[in-house]
Amino acid sequence: MRGFKERFEIFNLIKSNTKLKLNQIIIMKLLLMIVTLIPPMLYKILIDDVIVKQKLSYLKIVVILYIALFLIESLILYYKTYKENLVYNKLSYDIKTTLFKFCIYEKNDFTERFENADIKNRLDNDVESMVNFVQIQIVECIIEVVQLLISAALLISINYKLAFISFLVVPTSFIISKKIKNNISKETKEYQKKFYSYENWLQKTLLGWKEVKALNIEDDVCNDFTKRWNGLKSHYVKKTVNTDLGYILSSFNNFFVKKLSIYCIGGVFVYYSLTTIGQVLMFIKYFQLLFNSIETINGYDIKFSSEKILIYRVLEFLKLAKNSKEQTISKNTFENMNIKIENLYFKYPNSSNFVLKNLKLLIKEGEKIAILGESGCGKSTLAKLILGLYDDYEGNIYIGGKDIREVKDTELYSNISAIMQDTMLFNISIKENLRIASSEATESQIVEACKIADIHDFIVTLPQGYDTVIGKNGTKLSGGQRQKIAIARALIKDAPILIFDESTSALDREAERTIINELNKISKNKTVIIISHRESTIEYCKRIVKLNELNEL
């Protein structure tokens, strides 16, 4: 089989990224295969000795052996099934855990290179395809090849002339499946590409449902949906037709090539006394095993052609995860909280224009600084760079004398609390959302943070208070209420650096002033960076920096 080399190359890549152990499973399956090779021999004895030669004393031995084989087979099957469930579930868990941790710890540019729907499919469906690959394309394939070779050897030992004639029909299956396998691989690749594009479009469309209604573009969206599904349908039909054609041709081989040919040839051999009936029936049993192995391997070959693209998608992430730096949690290892930016140049992936150019800035520990500027001048980008969400920039960003690209992400994040424009709230209770910042936060700390953020009075009016579930991304709250909870969450984290990136843009002037005044009381020893395009936001800052489109300060 031509794909064996590719299979083991993939398997070696999987082994290098996991602690996969298949020895016991392979041994159990080999023992099970040996047990299945014995019944045809007993069948020959039953026909030739018990029935034809009337040796009834053999009958008792045959029956006892059949019962013994049944019991042995059952025990082996039970243990094999137990080990398979254990090993393959662990493999799935290990790969998904590795990939999930990798995705969580990766920089922000990772989510810009890969769509959310694509990441979700790789973590879920594609990982299961990889587990199936190990189970079928490696373990089962090895067993089928061994069974094929042993069956061939037994056929030769029974009657080499009959075996030689029978072997002439074997190449038929390989010839027929070759072209189908290539067609399936091509169509599957095209289908998967279009399907992931559709899934990503669907996810974004459903998330933007309100905008679709507001813009009155329901018909356009529905037409786009139909167009995308028609494109998917044509590739799916071609893929399915090629796959079904492969199975139909295998069935044709099974009936016409395998059964009719051997029955006819075996009958001729018995007629001319070149063999016995029992030998022919035993020969047919082993030939069926041989041919079943060939058909199974062909089926695996077709399946591999259609699924290997999914496996390579998982391997791509595993390779990225292996090259990603290990994350460990450590706190307060900076000598101070001075932030120094030197000759900073940055442009987003797939963009030729620099958002930040030759930027220089020093923010001292405990300083309250406001960064103002019009939309698009790079204020939010600067916040993301200080947070370490991107590291593909020229120049340097230092905190406490350390280049943040050389600092563990967890160390960096533990020292910075950030409230961004697009703050994310989870579909859990208010209290649980707040405790994300610190799982050890007490009730009094939570209430105090909410009072400072001017949201406590609203929360206590809710029927379930702090236990109220707020919906996906806080959809049961107003924009201002979401921002206030995000501010409270940042305060609970109690990091030495606070970054506010347009975090009060949804608040009215009075609410904004109340929060700023409270922040002024509790942040005397903290470094505070307020990013805004509204000058009213930065009344309490001791220093104001204006950033224009040329990044001039």
Measured by DSSP, the beta-strand proportion falls in 5-15%
**Please, how many domains?**
2
Order of helices and strands: HHHHHHHHHHHEEEHEEHEHHHHEHEE
Q: Based on helices, strands and strand pairing, what is the structural class?
A: alpha/beta
Going by CATH, the homologous superfamily of the largest domain would be ABC transporter type 1, transmembrane domain
GO molecular function, one term: ATP binding
Protein name: ATP-binding cassette, subfamily B, MsbA
Transmembrane segments: 25-46, 58-79, 260-284
Keywords: ATP-binding, Cell membrane, Membrane, Nucleotide-binding, Transmembrane, Transmembrane helix, Transport
Would you kindly provide a written description of the structure presented here, covering whatever features stand out?
Residues 25-297 form the ABC transmembrane type-1 domain. Keywords: ATP-binding, Cell membrane, Membrane, Nucleotide-binding, Transmembrane, Transmembrane helix, Transport. Residues 339-553 form the ABC transporter domain. The structure is a single chain. The model is unreliable at 327-332 (pLDDT under 50). The chain is of the alpha/beta class and 553 residues long. Strands 6-7-8-3-9 form a five-stranded parallel beta sheet, with helices on both faces. Strands 2-1-4-5 form a four-stranded antiparallel beta sheet, covered by helices on one side. The two termini are 67 Å apart. It has 18 helices and nine strands. It is elongated, with a radius of gyration of 34 Å. Helix 6 packs antiparallel against helix 11. It has two domains: 4-323, ABC transporter type 1, transmembrane domain (ABC transporter transmembrane region fold, Up-down Bundle); 366-379 and 401-546, Rossmann fold, CATH 3.40.50.300. Strand 7 (497-501), helix 18 and strand 8 (527-532) form a beta-alpha-beta unit. It has helices at residues 4-17, 23-37, 39-52, 57-105, 108-113, 116-158, 160-167, 171-207, 209-214, 218-271, 277-323, 379-386, 409-414, 430-435, 443-452, 456-461, 479-493, 509-522; strands at 339-346, 356-363, 368-372, 394-399, 402-403, 416-419, 497-501, 527-532, 543-546. 65% of the residues lie in helices and 9% in strands.
